[in-house]
Amino acid sequence: MHRNSVPTSFIEEQDFLDAAMARRDSLTAHLRAELELDAADAVELGRQRMLRRQYEELRRAGEGLVFGRLDATDGSTLHIGRIGLHSDDEPLLVDWRAPAARPFYTATAVEPQGQKRRRHIRTTGSVVVGVDDEPLSATPGHDGDLGLVGEGALLAALDQRRTGHMTTAISTLQREQDDIVRADATGPLIVQGGPGTGKTVVALHRVAYLLFTYRQMADRAVLVLGPSPRFLDYIGQVLPALGETAVVAATCDTLLPGVTVERAESRTAAEIKGRALWQGILERRVAALTPGPRELKMRWDGDFHVIPATAVAQALTSATQGRSYHRARAVFAEQLHQLLADAIAEQRETLMEEMERGYEDILSRIADTSTGASRSDVDGLLSEEELEELRERIADNATIARFVESLWPTLDPGTLLREILVDTELLATELTPAEVATVTAEPAPWASSDIPLLDALAELLGERDGEQPRPQGEFTADRARGQRDWVYGHVVVDEAQELSEMQWRMALRRCPSRSVTAVGDIDQAEAAHRHTSWAQAVRAVLGDRWTAAELTICYRTPSEVMELTGPVLALAGSHNTPPRAVRSSGVLPWQLAVTAADLPGVAAQAVQELQQRWEGGTVGVIAPASRIPELRAVLGDVPLMTATQSKGLEWDATLLIDADGISAEPRGHNGLYVALTRCTQELGRLTVS
Ligand SMILES: Nc1ncnc2c1ncn2[C@@H]1O[C@H](COP(=O)(O)OP(=O)(O)OP(=O)(O)O)[C@@H](O)[C@H]1O
């Protein structure tokens, strides 16, 4: 296009983008040169680490560097972008997370916040391809209006073909989403939102916002918990694109370093083992392992020394104060070494006194006092250094170590959990006989519900001395990932409705300050627990000390498909209504009845047609678990999964196979609700007659 025929707004924004790109390129080149220099010392190494972070941030910011502009009523303008840039000490581009950028997401015609116009700038690489202006002095919307911000840019983004990876939404975040992204992070926040309302979008952008706003949070890293490795892969590219590296992504199954899930389990067993009451069972079992106060007889240099029960009781009380089993054991062992050293010193003193008395007797009998020897010269007391040396010898002594081990054995969480899971007497204190039978009948390899129990036990037991060298790594995330007791600055839980109470505990254990954002849809819950409300889901772990927020607009699923979801939601026992769809795709959902024998062939044909129709995009197939093997054989590498596995994912078109079969699965109506809402454009259904 000739520059003369291009609208002025395009030229203006292209010039600005060119200037911003040039600035970014010069900064990148400067940093690259600095990073090529060898670091001479620790200070320089630290500086280089910081520069590398800045360099990475700049490097990644190439795509979508500038995406917005605000024109204020006072005539000033502000460009908003993926990162902040300065030129000659003057602000050039404002980072989207900075307070100054907020009106870009929240100003409305009713509340223009001093702004006259909002402009969305769409770019491809270094070229401006679209400019959408939204006057903020226009007449406010009417009833039923969704109050969208930058509607043109939003709808264009939503209509894009899906790539199989999530993309960022920094340029089109909506007001209700932005409120959550920038919410205060001092306590637990639980966000309820129906399918496609942008819960994942909000959760990930919140991470980027928090790390930008609270710089010290990057030193502790942020943990993002998702439902499956497939989901983590789906969101994996968003976080680096948002410019953050201090993030650890995990599932509840991969959160405990060194332990992996080795088998599937029954829903009944998973439900029982997910209950909060296990904390009590585990605590009681660990407490019972601590030795009781009794007199101890210890051998040193061939002599027995007695430590009275009162002294042992005192040592136990002070050792166990709020400490884990192994920490308390270490403190108790030190005290025992001290008590033994004292007993040895005392015995030696008594002995010396006796010797001295005998010596004085002899002296008096031979009536020769010419030596001048007196009691004070040989009082037998050990000096402080001698006592210290004795304590060290005791601490290093293998026999004493064996004695302490027999009294207070070191334990590993795995062995102890295996013992607990067959301890019918202990289990019967909290479970019915049938529940005890279910738990004790489970095979030994670890199942998913064992991980939170192992984690709780690992915390109660604590690290043994010398165990677990602290993981090393250049970035905080590398160090945090390998360390069970790492304390994160913030924890984000996605698909939080799936967490059992014990999994909630495991998540919260990683952030004692309770700076947690959990997003989910209680109506999509399929996991083996009984929660039908957030209050119920978190009562045992958070009480009522949490804040609720809600997302109400569905961005993913078109209105034609959302219309099918109301009855399914009602069948799932929900009293909620599905979220309102922001757009229509113009494609009506279709349905075809096939016989079981014809199903594989028809499914293969339907997938091929959908792939042709949505060329350049993605197609996914959802089916009941029982039909997956026969379908896999004909569908090749098309994403094929159960409703549960499809949670959090999306494709341009979904082929839903045997909806009745999905409904018949445990919590099947919830599963069908998930399955129906995965497409951004088209839904095809094959029913089996
Ligand atoms: N403000 C936005 N701008 C652009 N795209 C958006 C926005 N909000 C959501 N989306 C898009 O809508 C789709 C659904 O978002 P997301 O996956 O976060 O929803 P969700 O609530 O987690 O859904 P579900 O619970 O069904 O998994 C995604 O493609 C996301 O990129």
Automatic annotation (TrEMBL):
Quote the record's binding site residues for ATP.
G193, G194, P195, G196, T197, G198, K199, T200
Q: Name one GO cellular component term.
A: cytosol
Q: PANTHER family in the record, alphabetically? A: DNA 3'-5' HELICASE (PTHR11070:SF45), UVRD / RECB / PCRA DNA HELICASE FAMILY MEMBER (PTHR11070)
InterPro entries linked to this entry: DNA_helicase_UvrD/REP, P-loop_NTPase, UvrD-like_ATP-bd
Q: Which organism is it from?
A: Actinoplanes derwentensis
Q: What Pfam families would the database entry show? A: AAA_19
Q: What is this protein called?
A: DNA helicase IV
Q: Where does the UniProt annotation place the signal sequence? A: none
Q: Which Gene3D superfamilies match?
A: P-loop containing nucleotide triphosphate hydrolases
One term of GO molecular function: ATP binding
Domain of life, per lineage:
Bacteria
